[in-house]
Every structure is written in C-alpha cells, then in structure tokens.
Amino acid sequence: MSRKTLFLVLMTFALLMVVSLGAVSAQDDVRITLVVNGVLGDKSFFDSAQRGVDRIADEYGVETNTVELGIDPQNWESGLADVMADSDSYDILITGTFQMIDFLAARAHQYPDKTFIFFDAGMPYDNADICVDACANVYSITYNQNEGSFLAGVYAAAMSASDVEGFNPDPFIGAVGGQDIPVINDFIVGYEQGACLVNPDSQVLVQYAGGWNDPARGKEIALAMFEQNADIIFQIAGGTGVGVFEAAEEQGHYAIGVDSDQASIILDTNPDQAERILTSMQKNVDNSLFRAYELYLAGELPLGTAEGLGLAEGGVGLSINDIYTNATPENVQELIAAAEEAVVNGDITVSSVFGAEDEVATVGTPCSEMPASDFDASMYLGM
After folding, report:
1. Which of 124, 239, 259, 379 is deepest in the core (most CB within 10 A)?
2. pLDDT at 25 over 50
3. Does the pLDDT of residue 10 top 50, yes or no?
4. How far is 116 from 91, CA to CA, in rounded Å?
C-alpha cells in the first residue's frame, strides 16, 4: 500500500470515528420533556407514558423531565406554552390526549428545530386553521382500539360459551360506552366483530352512559344487562365504568376493563373486585413512545404524519395477568393467541368506524353481515 493510499485510509477511518462519536454524543445529549395535562398516579394513560419515558432513560441514558399541569383545564394551554418556550431544556417534547391538540398545533411551528411527539390523537395536519405549517415537526400516535377490542369480543364470547362459574349458556355479552361518539363506537364495532367470529348467534347489548364520571349510572346499566343474561360486560366509560366493576362483583359476573390493566391496579386494595375483571383492552402508550424514540434515533420518525398502532406494533392488546391465566380455560387462551396472530398476519381485517367511506362499520351490525373470514374459532372451543 502506498503512503498516499494509507493516508486516505487513515483519514477515512478517522472521519468515520468522528461521525460515530458524534452520533453517540447526539444520543447521549438528547433531552426529553413529558408534559401531562393532569397528574401522575392516574394508573392509566399518564403513568403509562411515564413508564415509556423511564424506559427510554434507562436503555439510552437520555435526560428526561416530566411536567404535570394539574387537573384544572384552565392551566393546560398556558402551562404547555411555558414549557415549550423553555426550548433550551428539551430536544423532544411529548404530550397527548385530544384536549391538547389545539394548544400544541398552534405553537409547534415556533420551534422548528424541536421534535414533538403527540399520543392518543392525530394532529389535523390538513387543517391550516389549526395546524400552522401543517404541524411539520409533530409526530402523532393513535391506537387501533378496534383491533384490541376485537380480541376483547373474541374473549367475551368464548368465555360466555365456557362452563366457568358465573357464565350462563346464553350468548349475551355487554358493552357500556361513555358517550355515543366515533372513538367509542370504534371500540364497540371491533368488540361485536370478535364476538361474531366466535359465535354467529352472539348478542351484544350496547348502552351509552352519557358521561365519564358517574359510577352509579355505570352500575345501573350493568345490573340491567346482567338481568338480560349478559354475563360479561366491556366497560368503555372511564370513571363511569367503575360501576360496571361494582355490579360484576355484586352479581358474581364479570367485566373487561379498558386502556390499562384495570384488575392489577386495584388488586391490592380490592382483590374481590379485581378477580371479576378478567382482562382489559390496553392502549400501550409506553410501548408506543419507546418505539417513537427508536425511530427518532434511526432518523425514521415520520414527522408531519399520524400513525395508528395496532396489534402488530404492540400499540394495543389484552391484559395477560394472573387473574386472566387462572380464570381462562386453556383452549380460550389458545384461541386468543391464534386470533391475534390472524389479525397481525392480515388473515382477519377488523372493521372500523374510521374506514373508507364504503367500509365504515356501524354499531349493531348483525353477525351475518360481518366481514367473512376463514378463521375457525370452533376448532378451539368445540362448538
């Protein structure tokens, strides 16, 4: 090798080392701020977001900070604006929930060198009245609740057909929604489709509570559904759903929680009620934030767009805990695993109220009109 060639090789190696060290340094120097429009300790979305940020800090050694804006909505806009204005303290700012869309969308363009990650709602990128400069430096995460709820429906119908104590032979299951709005209906259409996959005679009792913080109303609805021979009810009603759990405990029937592993949350304080929450349909905010950070590091974070994360991305799923394992027959557990795999592989397409115009699903669609599938649930249940 000539001296000139050797010199070029050494210079190239040195340049690569500088680039590599620069990348490591850039990673080490990343600062993340999480802003929650509430307080930690909710044992739901915000705690899950914090777990995701903590995992990023643990695995990548980045500096993180969390700002709690409190429960008064009057403080949320000014609080977020103050945090954003302190732009020397963060490289990535994370916040979420639909209540914060307008506040972030109006200001993100003022900090073009910053990255914003928004969870549980999509920015209206095409609406210039809300998204200044099309929110070009904001990445949004939504969760395919219809897919997770599909598994909840498979589970409810399969358990309804089991001989587990507390279940009757009638194919009735329930769903209590907080309000009759598209996102809640997206849960319900997935739930209905899952139930129909298991048993084409499934009857899903659906009722909306009209609010999110009325446990007494939730209990009233649940008791009425149990009277109609539903033996398991999916609560999609926030604090109102606590009443569903109370009714299940009182009547010796069962419930399915939402958003977080709701049985584990109350296991220490109310074990008898927790035993009645056989599983929950989770939105995995923690997984989605960790995934977003890894995309950011790889230079692949799709800024200016929203991504819907489903079963394949770990964005949603059922809670698999000791209560689930102990209460659920082995064949039902195998069915759930197989149904999830079928959705991930594209063998089952889950309906959605947010589909294309000619594919929009509606609550109450008869099983006979559900999308056809070659998946055979009966081979697991012997039905």
Report:
1. 259
2. no
3. no
4. 9
* pLDDT tens string 31-81: 999 999 999 887 778 889 999 999 999 999 999 999 999 989 999 999 999
Could you tell me if residue 148 is left (phi over 0), alpha (psi between -120 and 50 degrees) or otherwise beta? alpha
For 118-170, the pLDDT digits (tens) are: 999 999 999 999 999 999 999 999 999 999 999 999 999 999 999 999 999 89
Q: How far apart are CA 76 and CA 184, in angstroms?
A: 24
Confirm if 321 and 261 have CB atoms less than 8 A apart. yes
Decide if pLDDT at 285 tops 50.
yes
Q: How far is residue 204's CA from residue 150's CA, in Å, rounded to a whole number?
A: 13
Q: Give the whole-angstrom CA distance, residue 69 versus residue 73.
A: 9
> Structure tokens of 190?
């997935």
Domains and CATH numbers, the chain: 31-143 (3.40.50.2300), 145-283+320-381 (3.40.50.2300)
DSSP state of 354: T
Counts for the chain of helices (H) and strands (E), in that order: 14, 12
Q: Which two tokens stand for residue 189?
A: 């259409």
Give the per-residue pLDDT at 24.
36
CA 332, CA 319: separation in Å to the nearest integer?
A: 14
Residue type, 347: D
Q: Quick check: 109 and 117 in contact, CB under 8 A? A: no
Q: How far apart are CA 159 and CA 134, in angstroms?
A: 46
CA distances from 106 to 109, 120, 136, 163 (A): 7, 18, 12, 55
CB neighbours of residue 75 within 10 Å: 13
pTM, two decimal places: 0.84
Strands (E), 97-160: 115-119, 138-143
User: Do 196 and 202 form a contact (C-beta atoms < 8 A)?
Assistant: yes
